[in-house]
Specification:
The protein is of the alpha/beta class and 248 residues long. The chain has one domain: Glycosidases (TIM Barrel), CATH 3.20.20. The chain has 6 helices and 11 strands. The strands form 2 sheets. It has an 8-stranded mixed beta barrel, surrounded by 4 helices. A two-stranded antiparallel ribbon has the order 1-2. Strand 6, helix 3 and strand 7 form a beta-alpha-beta unit. The longest helix has 19 residues. The protein is globular and about 45 Å long.
């Protein structure tokens, strides 16, 4: 995932080339082959605009994350249509925020996110809010947004604390092992109470999981496939996905 206004180019990789990740001790190296496999999902932003949600569900989508906001000034103009459209056809959906820690505080961005779609309710159809934190797409010279490792950890704590105060849930953290270990110094401060949404496309990515986490809850494994946007899996059954949405 990345900024909305200019597409963020990432390498394309077939799932078959992805090095296996641990799923509670079980290797997952390919896409689901049957209904018994982990639920498939995807994530979308304004790049996808008018999604055919019924087709997405027919093609296997059981959950989706929709980009709501970026920094404290941008809201996805397609958010309401995408977020409600997914729910209308029976897809569990949630909202995510693209962090720009050099623009404003974690608390400020969290409040803006929640006000503009990043809320949560225990209705069984709403995934917890998600924080998308990755390398700075606007300034390659300051890939960690000019923050020290301790400063980045403090920013994430501030964002998480405000989301928890406003919604009752800690945010899911979307990141890569390389970013996390580089920009937070491999902080272990979040693994105990934040679900991990790991982005890992191929064996060139450094490490299977960010330091601190022993398993992932969501895995973004490709930026193209049978569903609009990026392709994801949930680490569990469909029933467990519903429990996760309810807050279990």
């Amino acid at each position: 995932m990345a900024r909305d206004r200019t597409p963020f180019r990432r390498r394309s990789a077939l799932v078959a080339s992805v090095a296996a990740l641990a799923v509670g001790g079980v290797a997952l190296a390919g896409t689901p082959a049957s209904a018994a496999d982990p639920p498939k999902g995807h994530d979308v932003s304004s790049h996808q605009r008018n999604v055919d949600w019924q087709k997405a569900r027919t093609n296997g989508a059981r959950f989706v994350y929709v980009k709501a906001t970026e920094s404290h000034t941008y809201r996805n103009p397609s958010f309401d249509r995408q977020y409600n459209g997914a729910r209308d056809v029976g897809i569990i959906r949630g909202a995510y925020h693209f962090a720009l820690p050099d623009r404003s505080s974690g608390r400020t961005q969290a409040a803006y996110f929640v006000r503009n779609g990043g809320t949560w309710s225990a209705d069984g159809w709403t995934l917890p809010p998600a924080l998308d934190i990755e390398y700075n797409p606007y300034d390659k010279r300051h890939k960690c947004y000019g923050l020290s490792k301790a400063g980045m950890v403090s920013w994430i704590k501030s964002f998480s604390g405000e989301v928890k105060r406003l919604t009752g849930r800690r945010p899911v953290i979307y990141t890569t092992a390389h970013w996390w270990n580089t920009c937070t110094g491999g902080s272990r401060a979040f693994a105990a109470n934040h679900a991990l949404w790991v982005a890992r496309y191929d064996s060139a990515d450094a490490g299977a999981l960010p330091t601190g986490w022993s398993f992932w809850t969501l895995w973004q494994y490709a930026n193209r496939g049978g569903l609009p946007g990026d392709q994801n899996l949930f680490n569990g059954s469909l029933n467990e996905l519903r429990k996760f949405a309810r807050g279990a």
